[in-house]
Amino acid sequence: MPAQPESNVLGIDNISVESSSPSGGVVSLWTINRPDKLNALNNEVNTAIKAACAWAEEEESVRVIIVTGAPPNTPPEGKRSKPNSFVAGADISEFKGKSSTEIRPIFDDNVWEYIWNLSKPTIAMIDGFALGGGSELALSCDLRIATPRSNFGTPEINLGLIPGGGGTQRLCRLLGYGKAMEMVMSGEMVDGTEAHRIGLVNHLVEPDELHQKVMSIAENLAQKSPYTIRVAKSAVRAALEKPFSSGILAERDLFCALFDTADMEIGVDAFLNRETPEWKGA
Ligand code: COA
Questions:
Q1: Pocket test residue of 37, 45, 86 for ligand 1, highest count of atoms within 8 A of CB
Q2: What is the CATH number of domain 226-272?
Q3: Residue 248: closest CA among 261, 236, 260
Q4: Yes or no: is domain 10-222 CATH 3.90.226.10?
Q5: Which of 155, 178, 183, 259 has the most C-beta neighbours closer than 10 Å?
């Protein structure tokens, strides 16, 4: 197993899930910690997230990953507080002076794909700005839970840019072509309530309930077979990649293959015997 990575800009808090199955499972809560820069994704944060992804993929105890942004620091006397942020984007200061050949390798090996490619369930816990690369980070997670005071947007157009972390494609898939086009071309933000209405977030909760709500969703996922949940994720993902009839076939292949797993036997027996399944994870 790789050692858990350490970083000043990414806190990793592993929360035990009593009811996890197999036992010993944790929900891994990742907090991006640059609140003075609204948790913008600079090179240091990106490197830390990539290392965390490599670790979490290998670490069996990690069943679910939550990604969030640190709350604002208390401001110095007489100064205004920084606003709440999930992530206010890629760090714009790192764009300055770069040419296409310099930016290309950074975006070829990008943090959004690392999150997207995790085989375990991922949840974005959002309270505040989720802009540009921050909205793309949320879109790279499987679920998004947000507060009404959050704001989502792809303001890159105002920098003479477009989204570069998969935003155009993932917004189209999640919201449909029309709304994605409007957001990308206008650069305008939608608040949490509107984001919930259009399906950009799965659940909308008040700030003081956010952590508990996200944890209860994560704990529920941590009680499923870790093997079966990966298969479920890959089956749903197939819908993004394949034509409909091939996707139906891919699902059937995965479904049938599960009949050769221990966890299918365990799950069916547990149902028939009115017991709680104790998964093997295989
Ligand atoms: N990259 C780098 N720094 C950023 C940043 C980003 N994406 N977003 C915010 N910051 C920094 C600001 O420069 C400021 O730093 P400073 O206090 O050292 O000057 C700090 O975070 C606070 O931001 P500020 O702009 O003062 O807060 P605000 O409440 O006035 O405005 C926003 C909040 C989110 C509207 C504004 O920060 C913003 O538009 N950010 C950029 C969003 C963006 O274009 N994202 C896409 C990038 S690809």
A1: 37
A2: 1.10.12.10
A3: 236
A4: yes
A5: 183
